[in-house]
Amino acid sequence: MKRIDERDTMFARMSYRKGTWQYDDYYSKNKDKKEIDDTIREKPNICGPGTATYSPVNSPIADANFLFLNDIKKFSEGKVNPNKVDVDKKEMTKKLKGLTLHYGAALVGICSMKDYHYYSYRGRHSEVYGEKVDSNKHRLGIVFAVEMDKEMLNRSPQLSEVIETSNIYVKAAMIGMQLSYYIRLLGYDARNHMDANFLAVLPLVARDAGIGEIGRNGILTTKKYGSRVRLGLVTTEMELIPDSPTEFGLQRFCEVCGLCSDTCPGKAIPKGDKTLIDGDLRWQITQEKCYGTWRNIGTDCGICISSCPYSQGVKKSIENDDDIDEVLKEHEEKYGARPYIREAPEWLK
Ligand code: SF4
Ligand code: SF4
Predict the structure, then answer these.
(1) Percent of the chain with pLDDT over 70
(2) Domain ranges (residues) in the chain
(3) Residue located nearest, by CA, to atom 8 of ligand 1
């Protein structure tokens, strides 16, 4: 698989300010993206005044989480204890997985990191724009999923949604910090990949470690929690025993289902069959349409997460298309077009 350049991701593109060399460099090489990006740049910020969900008291709850994440991202890397402790890789694999779950993750796996898991170049912060990512430094990754509250996500795209996603980004960052500090203290380099400070594409890492599959909505979807999770990753030089990818039938389910595509307010999720993209047969969302919708609404939307039957819990094992039809019928009878809680929680009103 081709490595993804972080400079092409929406968050990176939105960080390029007019008049800076990063802006000039990027759009001189990507002329086709300039007009759409300049249009999105004109829109209000997520959680900002002018968005559909803005509240001067409640929007800063999510903003505060993002601000905190930005402040602590410098702790993602750190000094390694020169006095290395000899460890057994089987024992450490068991210990680190158990510790990750104990710290609050719902699912954990070990990934044998390949080149395509890492971005080719960094882009999200001006000080590291264009920096090459070294894919050889850490060849193992502890990847984990933290569950997001179902009721909060079922209020998507209201403020409750971004309050919960930002809350779980903080939780994932904390788990990653605790693990990476521990591993470095044992004498092995380790790095926490957290919100706004990723060197790797976490859904690909999680998929290859057997945590879930990537479906039509382009998000990592797990059998138990659907796409109602945020991911965290600690990469390390420590030797561990990697897991393998697993499948629970999501690809076939997505072919029949399409609920995320039907309910997406930005029309960003494709209908129909997978297409060949960079040599890989898959669905690909239109990130400009998705992100542009976020900037109108004022949250990171989340409708494709709550719409997914797996996010509400699919208990039935899917053996054939009849089982898929049955799950979709039950889902529609229970939720209509999609699960939706109109009222904010009492404490947020
Ligand atoms: S987050 Fe919203 S706009 Fe983006 S793909 Fe999902 S449903 Fe569509
Ligand atoms: S809503 Fe349906 S099509 Fe979309 S990811 Fe979930 S299972 Fe797949």
Answers:
(1) 100
(2) 1-349
(3) 264
**Hey, is 325 helix, strand or coil?**
helix
CA of 62 to the centre of ligand 1 (A): 18
Give me the mean pLDDT over the 100-122 stretch: 98
Ligand with the closest atom to the CA of 221: 2
**CB 78 near ligand 1, within 6 Å:** no
pLDDT of the residue at 111: 98
Q: Mean pLDDT in the chain?
A: 97
Query: Where do runs of H (alpha helix) occur along the chain?
Result: 10-14, 21-29, 31-41, 59-72, 89-102, 150-153, 159-185, 202-208, 250-256, 259-263, 287-297, 303-307, 309-312, 321-335
Dihedral, 124, 305, 303, 317 alpha carbons, nearest 10: 160
pLDDT in tens, 280-337: 889 999 999 999 999 999 999 999 999 999 999 998 889 999 999 999 999 999 999 9
pLDDT at position 22, please? 97
d(CA 325, CA 253): 9
Q: Is 176 within 8 Å of 202 (Cβ atoms)?
A: no
134 CB neighbour count, 10 Å cutoff: 9
Distance CA 233, CA 134 (A): 16
What is the total residue count of the chain?
A: 349
